[in-house]
TrEMBL record, chain A:
Catalyzes the deamination of various vicinal amino-alcohols to oxo compounds. Allows this organism to utilize ethanolamine as the sole source of nitrogen and carbon in the presence of vitamin B12. It is an enzyme of class 4 (lyase). Belongs to the EutB family. The gene is eutB. This is Ethanolamine ammonia-lyase large subunit. It catalyses: ethanolamine = acetaldehyde + NH4(+). It comes from Salipiger thiooxidans.
UniProtKB/TrEMBL annotation, chain B:
NCBIfam families: PRK05465.1 (NF003971). The lineage of its organism: Bacteria, Pseudomonadati, Pseudomonadota, Alphaproteobacteria, Rhodobacterales. It is found in: Bacterial microcompartment. Belongs to the EutC family. Its EC number is 4.3.1.7. This is Ethanolamine ammonia-lyase small subunit. Adenosylcob(III)alamin binds at V149, E170, C199. It comes from the Bacteria. GO terms for biological process: amino acid metabolic process; ethanolamine catabolic process. GO terms for cellular component: ethanolamine ammonia-lyase complex; ethanolamine degradation polyhedral organelle.
Amino acid sequence: MKFEHIAGGETHAFASLAQVMAAATPLRSGDELAGIAASSEANRVAARYVLADLPLTHFLNDVVVPYESDEVTRLIIDSHDAEAFAPFRSMTVGDLRNWLLSDAADAVSLAKAARGFTPEMIAAVSKLMRNQDLIAVAAKTEVITRFRSTVGLKGRLSTRLQPNHPSDDLRGIAAAILDGLLQGSGDAVIGINPASDSIQNCTDLLWALDGLRQEFDIPTQSCVLTHVTNSMEIMESGGPVDLVFQSIAGTQAANEGFGVTLSILKEAQEAALGLKRGTVGTDCMYFETGQGAPLSADAHHGVDQQTLEARAYAVARAFDPFLVNSVVGFIGPEYLYNGKQVIRAGLEDHFCGKLLGLPMGMDVCYTNHVDADQDDMDTLACLLGAAGVNFVICVPGSDDVMLSYQTLSFEDGRWMRSISGARPAPEFEGWLARMGLEQMGPDRAIPDMSAMMKRMGLAAE
Amino acid sequence: MSEIDKHPAFNALRRLTPARLRLDPEGGPATLESVLDFQLSHAKARDAIWKPVDWEAVEAGIGGAEVIRVHSRAEDRGVYIRRPDLGRRLRERDADTLPEGPFDAVIVLADGLSADAVNTNSAEVMTGLVGAFSDLKLGPIVLAEQGRVGIGDEIGERMGAKLVVMVIGERPGLSLTTSLGAYLTINPRVGTPDSSRNCVSNIHNSGGLSAEKAVAKIDWLVRHALKLGVTGVGLKDNSDKILIE
């Protein structure tokens, strides 16, 4: 297979599928750092012409990371659903782009096709799509997951309430949870990034979260985002684990950097399923991903970071996750330099995740050395609302005081619901109504805060 | 009326966490007060990252110790932010200016991601370390501009140092821009993995590790590292126990 295109009298040749994919990717610092970005703007567009004419079947025979040495490639190839792929067998990447934008692609046909697509096919087609295309197609998908709440229904937008505290102080965490609940946050999960990963500390946090949930009978799930092997140990000793969390990436070597393999994830999923803690469903895994993770682990195989990110979604979908989100602007400016790059990557990640059948959410975020601010986050949040994102992450005042980065605030979550007309998960919406928290504003009866604080163990001393 | 006055019951809650709690059951959009406060914090963090270190003042603050100034291969801040690999390597013409030891230890100070941290807190830490290491064969202090942690490896290797102590500005958060970190690496070589380093972080005078305590901790680690010939996961930090005794 010859990868080349003549543009304006100049021949652009690419040595491999990985090189075409990398060159076709919208500019981002991570691909520049890896030395695989397009050599010029014209070279980038030439690569897109090459991709557009590439048959989809090519991706089944020409893998970007070797099958023999990478279990993620083996998972992708071995679990490929030929029947679901049949309608697309004769299409090129460009044909797929046109089909996705056509009326033939609707929620039903897209869901049916998901297992027929490989991550590389979806990454490739995303490189031919403008931001508006990524939004339009993602908005047609519907990926619904269930545990104690139902997330991903059309017209719904859920949030992860992230009440992190720099020293895991239980009362400080409870105060942040109260703040979030008052603003209707927490229907995707109440999820803490612990400052200390010790088993005892994580177990204490889980019992505290579970106690709160039960005291108020909140139809949501809790999670302490510690390593999967810690969660397994906690489950073994009877700790209340709803969702098992793990960071994952798109190559075996990058996953090894995270200390995980597919078999460890399988074992953890089976353990969590065995607890039968879900009430409306059994989806019990929570994964985070992010463009640039494999490069930072020196495990990228010369493949562009967006294609590798899509491969992480193949890992995720093997375990029927309840939630998946990219931490898009968190990995750092050496991977996504500024607001423009973060916004593009956020839309790509959401699109690719949804097309591959994942319940995709987003940590709409940036660190202080990324050239971005809350205006960029407003833009991305607005676009993701239009694209029908399943959930976003919210913290008090946009400021995560444990991880030292900025994501959306509880107010931002409410704003997204208000401008996109989306409501919380139905079970949680019912609970908010029962608690008198369903609508904000001066007309609302103010809940009895001192009673609520007392029940949370937060009464004034 | 401010949020705090409206709901006095919440005042106790605000003291439980540095998080920007709203705690207003009436809700509504974020208050202008909180929006501007957030913007000011973010602006300060951005400024701390992008403004240059005043190296003359830093050099003066270190006192009489011999100082050598070098630059990484990242020519400016923009390149530094995009290319961590260049921030880890010495500019070629600077490599030859370093004396060949051997030395027991070399201390490197780099701007890292916070000029504020270096401008504000480095003098006390650096003079403290020089004092603590008075019995060691200590090389000249190296000030590295546009440097990442890894540049200490190349500096230490070129100077024949048994151990390098890298003091560097940490990435600013919204609440604090002046935190320093210190990284200890035995037998420094270009490409040393981070798992082979010990880190003492959060060094600042706003409720973090004070310069005095940081120097004591680093000193403890350096002595044990030199004795055991190891840093990183193989060297457990039990300095707190010793400091209390």
